Amino acid sequence: MAAIQAGDESQREPFIVQYRPFIAKTAGRFTRRYIDPERDDEFSVALAAFDEAINRYSSDAGASFLGFADTVITRRLIDHARQERRHAVSVPYSSLKEGEEDEEGFLHRIESAAAVELYEQQRVAEDRRAEIAALTEQLALFGIHFADLVENSPRHRDSRLVLMKIGNRLAQRAELFRILLEKRQLPVKELCTVEAVSRKTVERHRKYLIAVSLIAAGPYPCLQQYINLESSGKEEKPS
Question: pTM score, two decimals?
Fold first, then answer.
């Protein structure tokens, strides 16, 4: 492959032919069905993506070429399936009566849409599990267990909303957040002053506030969706 990237195009076609089984297998894993290289559009998409991967791959990134190619192929198949899904929505049901090939094509688009949706759901679930595992380790440094968050979560939605806002703002206050990370404890006095809340409230919800601030400031995009603040709604003091 190094020769191809160096400009020897005569090596490209044999190299791609050598990896046709890998390309078909990757496309089949994504669509969750057998891929016919002679008939299925997904194979053509995967083939073009593999060629793209040859041009873009760099060993400096640390990943193997096949791992990188798998990623590129999957992303291109996702884009393709999304386009097919949008097109399928625009096709009227009556078009199914126009011929066997049209019906097959329509059902094929439905299968593609289902495949990309399933893939995205699985990817999000895996990312969420990884984030929970990482957050669990970080919370342990503060002497907090994940189960503690359930026990310390405010019962009322409005109270949770207020505490989420406080936790988010704590993550944004560089000096206070530095104290939290370095001393492994909530800067209760300072937080009460800047947020105008009672010491009793902060201490009662200490674990919850720490968790929210760590999520807000950390590499937790999936978990951050759970603490996104609502743009409207009346605040009330947490109970």
Answer: 0.51
